[in-house]
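Limitations

Structures in this collection are predictions, not experimental determinations, and the ligand pose is part of the prediction. Treat each record accordingly. The example that follows, with 3-isopropylmalic acid as the small molecule, is included so readers can see exactly what is and is not provided: the inputs are given verbatim, and the output is the predicted complex.
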Amino acid sequence: MKTYRVAVIPGDGIGPEVIREAVKVLNTVSQLDGGFRFEFTEYPWGCEYYLKTGEMMPPDGLDRLRDCDAILLGAVGYPGVPDHVSLRDLLLRIRHDFDQYVNLRPVKLLRSAPCPIKGKGPGDIDMTFIRENSEGEYSGQGAWLYPNTPQEVVIQDGVFSRKGCERIIRYAYELAKREGKSLTSVSKGNALNYSMVFWDQIFREIAREYPEVETHSLLVDAAAMLMIRNPERFQIVVTSNLFGDILTDLGAAISGGMGLAAGANLDPERRFPSMFEPIHGSAPDIAGRGIANPLASIWAAGQLLEHLGHPRWYGRILEVMEQLLTEGSSMTPDLGGSASTSACGDAFAARLRQGN
Ligand code: NAD
Ligand code: IPM
Ligand code: MN
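Predicted complex:
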């Protein structure tokens, strides 16, 4: 039987609470499938670890992860440790050093998931965001000059390499071609006169290789407005690191909330393990109360299964999610229910078993 080695980094706040349920679902799937099993290795890295050791993960942390088949991550960041330290030294470090340059985030309104936009239903909100995940505004480069003087200046550099832009834009074109969907590029060339002009140019250059793909180019401010006014017009969307971050929280808000939004950090060349996570954070406001919604993490577990070559199980997970959303009785408070995190996960596993 095939064994998949999955590294689990539950992280901070609600991270461990929701990841426990994702692992529950993955174990249920492997039992039902019978053709593979999971071997989970849990790493206790995060803000508590930092407070004890002064580091977010041990110096050989990446080496320990390197040979696994996939990484499942909860959330990182907690009051008491500066966010720019905790996130940069763990989450962003893994994304960058494992060259997980594609951040694939479905923005898909499932049947019976709440949508705050009047008159919109499941068919109207069905997008795939392809967010650049290795450079751009997140390059981490810059300078802090003359600190604590009247001359103080900070510079935050955006890095847009030809290689970095080409590979993410090409990935999005390939996906659009394969799925027969339109492709929208979101940028901001009117104000960012180097980076986004370059991005737009590369988007047009690569278009020539894909005459069959219908393309659109939008400025990010207009794109934010249109995601609310006219979400149907978006199918595959490709954008920079920061714009993708912001627009996918907006995407979560129109497709059921933060409790239902997942993402995959992919190295498409499979030189390194890819990483799967809910897109929400550690939610300190509700951490420790057992009420966090685990569905985003379970969705990410579905993406992990697809990545490992089991797209039918991914489909099945989305199907069960729609069934449970429709019944309503196992939903956590963010979705109007009163179920606990673990009760929601239990119901998910039970429903998976029923259908098989
Ligand atoms: P957040 O996503 O943690 O929370 C935003 C709001 O959404 C909160 O009201 C929270 O209660 C709610 N929420 C989030 N996930 C939920 C879930 N599963 N179920 C129910 N409600 C949920 O964002 P924030 O408050 O801006 O950030 C908190 C911390 O998390 C910060 O340290 C931030 O840097 C970090 N963060 C980490 C990640 C990550 O690890 N991928 C992502 C975003 C933020
Ligand atoms: C996300 C998060 C991260 C990001 C933060 C925590 C660094 O918001 O995964 O969306 O900006 O990428
Ligand atoms: Mn974000």
